[in-house]
């Protein structure tokens, strides 16, 4: 039973990361780098929980503050900080789509451990785990795609535009994350009519951004290597 619960909790994050990794058409990232960023995302959960708890004690538990500050700003800022300081200047970050892969790795590592803890500490059945796979885990993937897309644009943009894209790579995930949490908190039952369309629109936009990033790859005119880089 425990094995089944853990598998169900881990599978969505691994599946989404595998999907995003395989969508890299031209220059696949080394698997060890992707796994490393995924595990860093796992490790981020503890400091984020500590910071959130400290701020909640200090500032209170206002719904808007919780959604945009404790959840959106704290979580996305720490992910952005790690992505920027570890990956942004790394030699493996050599095409715009790489930002999406690495940002999603961090976000899904965080979301996967969060999902595991939920499954272990709260009553979890198939329906609740499916809910978390379709919404919270998927949401973290979308926030990561947004962050990575704009950081990828910043990496290869002119200096005049780079700072604008870097700002967007931080502020847009915070905004979307905050909106997502605020809707779940503020709308008691009506959120079921709001969140699914919101997520659908986000996924459509994410796919377009993934395509745009892929089309700007400097390797698109070179013969494709089909093997996965280890």
From TrEMBL:
Record-stated family: Belongs to the protease PrsW family.
Major localization class: membrane
Keywords: Cell membrane, Hydrolase, Membrane, Metalloprotease, Protease, Transmembrane, Transmembrane helix
Domain of life: Bacteria
Function of the protein: Involved in the degradation of specific anti-sigma factors.
GO molecular function, one term: metallopeptidase activity
EC code: 3.4.-.-
Mode of membrane association: Multi-pass membrane protein
Enzyme class: hydrolase
Transmembrane segments: 6-22, 34-52, 99-121, 133-152, 190-206
Record localization: Cell membrane
Pfam families referenced in this protein's UniProt entry, alphabetically: PrsW-protease
Protein name per its UniProtKB record: Protease PrsW
Organism: Paenibacillus terricola
């Amino acid at each position: 039973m425990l094995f089944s619960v853990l598998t169900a909790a881990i599978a969505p994050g691994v599946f989404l990361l595998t999907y995003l990794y395989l969508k890299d058409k031209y220059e696949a990232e080394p698997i060890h780098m992707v796994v490393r960023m995924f595990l860093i995302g796992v490790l981020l959960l503890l400091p984020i929980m500590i910071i959130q708890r400290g701020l909640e004690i200090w500032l209170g538990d206002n719904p808007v503050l919780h959604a945009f500050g404790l959840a959106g700003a704290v979580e996305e800022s720490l992910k952005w900080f790690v992505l920027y300081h570890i990956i942004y200047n790394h030699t493996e970050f050599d095409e715009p789509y790489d930002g999406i892969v690495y940002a999603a790795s961090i976000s899904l590592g965080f979301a996967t451990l969060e999902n595991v803890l939920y499954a272990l500490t709260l009553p979890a059945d198939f329906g609740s785990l499916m809910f978390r796979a379709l919404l919270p885990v998927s949401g973290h993937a979308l926030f990561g795609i947004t962050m990575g897309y704009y950081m990828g644009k910043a990496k290869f943009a002119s200096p005049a535009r780079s700072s604008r894209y870097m700002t967007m790579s931080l502020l847009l995930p915070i905004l979307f994350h905050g909106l997502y949490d605020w809707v779940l908190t503020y709308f008691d039952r009506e959120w079921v009519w709001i969140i699914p369309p919101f997520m659908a629109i986000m996924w459509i936009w994410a796919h377009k951004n993934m395509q745009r990033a892929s089309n700007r790859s400097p390797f698109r005119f070179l013969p494709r290597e089909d093997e996965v880089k280890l």
